[in-house]
Specification:
single chain; 229 residues; alpha/beta; 8-stranded parallel beta barrel; 5-stranded antiparallel beta sheet; 7 helices; elongated
Length: 229
């Protein structure tokens, strides 16, 4: 069996989806702006859905025990398979206290890399950069269970006599060549004063990347339903 790829869906997408993916994720619960608990908790979900909590609304005076109870009640009532704590605002002792309580839930709980180093739990990593191979990217987390964010990223690298700079771009044009190690497609364009390398990960590249990543501790992939459906 391959690594499961959970597709994150908003409440609107859940409400209007005719056929749910094999693995779905609720995107997302938030910290309340007017209380000490959570908002946007689901009331109906397909059994086995992953529950995501992020800190788009910053943690400020929220109650770890109340949050743990709200998540526990939702997981139990809806049959959620796991909880992802996608915390992206760093250096927050309050966030650490919340994570510590939520990790006691009776289901798998994964924590973003910003905080996971302080806890014994699966770690949620950003997408593998287009210029990295799985072995180098996952090396700092050797021995840890990894949940991986995946996306069909595209970028252009411009090489001039002064060096190289890169930026994200739309995947326009053909990508006739493939790099097996980077799991991406590419093309090169020679200009008068530079060379441009265009790199892109297709959906097929992502599935191959996930398959290769299993050797480095990756057990779960998480992407966007609107992108990968």
């Amino acid at each position: 069996m391959g690594i499961p790829l959970y597709l994150s869906m908003t409440s609107s997408e859940f409400a209007h989806c005719g056929e749910f993916p094999a693995h779905a994720a609720w995107m997302a619960c938030h910290f309340s702006s007017y209380g000490t608990g959570l908002t946007n908790l689901p009331t109906r979900l397909p059994k086995g859905t992953m529950l995501i909590l992020n800190d788009r609304t910053p943690v400020h005076g929220h109650d770890p025990k109340q949050i743990r109870k709200m998540l526990a009640d939702t997981v139990a009532a809806l049959g959620c398979c796991a909880v992802l704590l996608d915390m992206q605002q760093p250096n927050s002792p309050e966030t650490q206290a919340i994570i510590r309580d939520v990790l006691t839930l009776p289901c798998p709980v994964c924590v973003s890399d910003i905080y996971a180093k302080d806890f014994d739990c699966p770690v949620f990593l950003p997408p593998v950069p287009l210029t990295h191979t799985p072995d180098t990217y996952f090396a700092p987390w050797k021995g840890r269970e990894i949940w991986l964010d995946v996306t069909m990223e595209s970028a252009v690298f411009t090489v001039t006599e002064n060096g190289c700079h890169s930026c994200l771009c739309e995947p326009v044009g053909d990508f006739p060549f493939r790099d097996e190690n980077l799991c991406c497609h590419y093309r090169a364009e020679l200009q008068n004063d530079c060379v441009r390398f265009y790199l892109r990960r297709t959906k097929e590249d992502l599935y191959e990347l996930l398959a290769k990543s299993a050797a480095y501790g990756v057990t779960t992939g998480i992407g966007l339903w609107q992108e990968l459906k």
